[in-house]
Each structure stands twice: as C-alpha cells, then as structure tokens.
C-alpha cells in the first residue's frame, strides 16, 4: 500500500481520528515541499516521538510578497511523496488553495510584540501574518500532538511558539536543529537557485556567522564583531545584507551585550537569492 495522500480537511481529520482511536499519537511536519535532508530531519524527530507522522505540503501564496519567487518556487510533489514514503511517513497532506482559502476567507492572525516588528518582519512586510495564519490553520486542521519546525527559520519558529502559547493551541511546538551541507551552508529549497559561483560565495555566510558567534561568546564586544562580520561578508561577494544582528533568543530584540540566551541572525542576498541563517551564542 502506497503513501496515503490527503487533499481535504475532512479526510485528514478522519485519518487522524482513526489513528487516535488506535491509541497512536501524531506529529505534524508543515512544509512547502521541495523536500531535502532538513525536512527529513523533522520527519525523523516526529517519528522518534510519535507512532504517526503527517507531512503537509502547501506553497502558501499569501506569504510571498511582490517580486518574490512564488511562481518559481520549486514544486515536485511526486518526488516529495517518494521521499516521504521511504522515510516512513504515515500520510501526506496536500491541501488545495481553495481548501485553505475558500471563497470569502477574511481572517488573519497577527502575532504582536517585538518578534513581529524586527528582522524579516521589516524586510518582508505581511510575511509573518501570512505564516501565522496558515500555520494556525494547519495546526487546527490536524490537531497533532506535536508540530516540528527547523531552527534555520528561527524567527518563524519563535513566532509560531508565541502564537501557540497565546492562543492556547493544544499542540507542542518542537524545534529541530539546522541541517547543513558539508561546507556548512544551511539546507534550503532556495539553494537550488544558486549558480556554482554563487554557491561558493554562499558558503561563506555560515563560516563568518559562526566565527562571530564564537567571538561574542568568548566575551568580545558585540558592535566591533558585527561590523567586522559585515565587512567580511561584503568582501566575500555577498550582494546585500538585509540584517546581521545579535538578538535575545526569545523576543529577538537586538542586544549590544551577550548577557542572556541570544542568537546571531542574518539575511543576505547572493545574486538574486535571499538566504537566512543563524547561530546560537554560547558564553564561555
């Protein structure tokens, strides 16, 4: 029997209901498809904690801003389904746009506080409202025991955690560490946009960020370290730096001293491709 592919909310709930009647817990892995080893790490985490794992694939049109890559975003549902079947996933949820946003849909979820006012929220207006809305819908449609998100999209992870807490959603939000290529570049579906030369340039991003995180963790002054990291990125051929900031690990407020749990986050452009990455700062 092949991997069950579910397209509607009713059949998703019916399938999950059958598993629950059998006493099986359920983990949900929300994705936009074009799956890679990073997504499979989320699947392994879900199956490590629950007998059943559901992966959703939905390229959400509302979270792409003007000039972004919605039409070009890679879509490979058949290849994704084969990967998920090999990984032992229990079902693939492939909702249609009209299922997610039926005629007359008019509700949005906006997470307040600093987390929705900094970093990507500044550079991608409206993005996190769209993310919060679609993730909340997926969580309510499936009502899993846990949902799994990668630390690469760290601001998104913290936003989803805040939303789940504030709305009392009965779902545990689980974080999975970033999966990286051999040269350190964080796995991302958008890496496929990079030319060979751009790929070599992009690999400098994690090296420079990690160096800066180690320096700050060892007690170096934050501002000079960040200035040096920005200069190194530019010398490496990074086209533009949207942000490079040391932030509180929960609120994402910018910090000038590493006097609490914190994270170094960056968004840059290599050619026409926008890349994000982050590293925890561990004080020594």
Element layout with pairings:
Elements: E1 5-6, H1 9-21, E2 26-31, H2 37-49, E3 52-57, H3 77-87, E4 91-93, H4 97-100, H5 120-123, H6 127-142, E5 146-150, H7 154-166, E6 172-176, H8 196-202, H9 204-217, H10 222-236, E7 240-248, E8 262-270, E9 273-281
Parallel strand pairs: 1-4, 2-3, 2-5, 3-4, 5-6
Antiparallel strand pairs: 7-8, 8-9
Helix pairs in contact: 6-7, 9-10
Give your account of this protein's structure.
It is a single chain. The protein has 284 residues and is of the alpha/beta class. The chain folds into two domains: 5-176, Rossmann fold; 189-279, Pantoate--beta-alanine Ligase, Chain: A,domain 2 (2-Layer Sandwich), CATH 3.30.1300.10. Helices cover 39% and strands 19% of the residues. It is built from ten helices and nine strands. It has helices at 9-21, 37-49, 77-87, 97-100, 120-123, 127-142, 154-166, 196-202, 204-217, 222-236; strands spanning 5-6, 26-31, 52-57, 91-93, 146-150, 172-176, 240-248, 262-270, 273-281. The chain has a six-stranded parallel β-sheet with strand order 1-4-3-2-5-6, with helices on both faces. A three-stranded antiparallel β-sheet has the order 7-8-9. Strand 5, helix 7 and strand 6 form a beta-alpha-beta unit. Helix 6 crosses helix 7 (154-166) and helix 9 runs antiparallel to helix 10 (222-236).
Compressed to H and E, one letter per element, the order equals EHEHEHEHHHEHEHHHEEE
Tell me the number of helical segments per DSSP (H or I, 4 or more residues long): 10
The strand count comes to: 9
Q: What is the chains' assembly state?
A: single chain
Number of domains: 2
How much of the sequence is in beta strands?
15-25%
CATH topology of the largest domain: Rossmann fold
Q: Quickly give the CATH architecture of the largest domain.
A: 3-Layer(aba) Sandwich
Per CATH, the superfamily of the largest domain is HUPs
User: What's the overall geometry?
Assistant: globular
Computed structural class = alpha/beta
User: pLDDT below 50 for ≥5 consecutive residues: which ranges?
Assistant: none
Distance between termini? Answer: 52 Å
